[in-house]
Structure to design on (129 residues):
């Protein structure tokens, strides 16, 4: 995650269809609260990592223990959608966020290690299907 190193993580985005499959077609990118995050360029800021604690408990099934806001880069078409996050959770699927499922803890460890001493940095994120 530093320099030219790229992290690639298995993930799902959007809600599964009636057969339990994920549809990443461009038509589905436009479907708010159902479709996946649209393909494009985004950025994250590690200092915005939100940890699920007892005093601000969100649904662990939906969110997991961590979430990180995804910001849109200029030129990325989101079809009026927003409010995207990277998060974990016990159920695969989301309302358009990137759900790393059980891989979120590993992602958090790796991004914290890679940005140690630079938590205010901006990390580019490319979504492609």
């Amino acid at each position: 995650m530093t320099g030219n190193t790229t992290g690639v993580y298995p993930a799902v985005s959007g809600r599964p269809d009636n057969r339990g499959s994920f549809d990443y077609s461009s038509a589905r990118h436009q479907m708010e609260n159902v479709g996946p995050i649209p393909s494009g360029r985004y950025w994250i800021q590690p200092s915005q990592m939100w940890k699920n604690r007892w005093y601000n408990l969100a649904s662990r099934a939906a969110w997991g223990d961590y979430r990180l806001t995804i910001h849109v880069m200029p030129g990325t078409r989101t079809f009026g959608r927003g409010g995207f996050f990277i998060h974990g959770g016990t159920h695969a699927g989301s309302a358009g966020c990137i759900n790393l499922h059980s891989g979120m803890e590993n992602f958090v460890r790796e991004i914290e290690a890679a940005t140690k001493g630079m938590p205010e940095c901006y990390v580019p994120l490319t979504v492609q299907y």
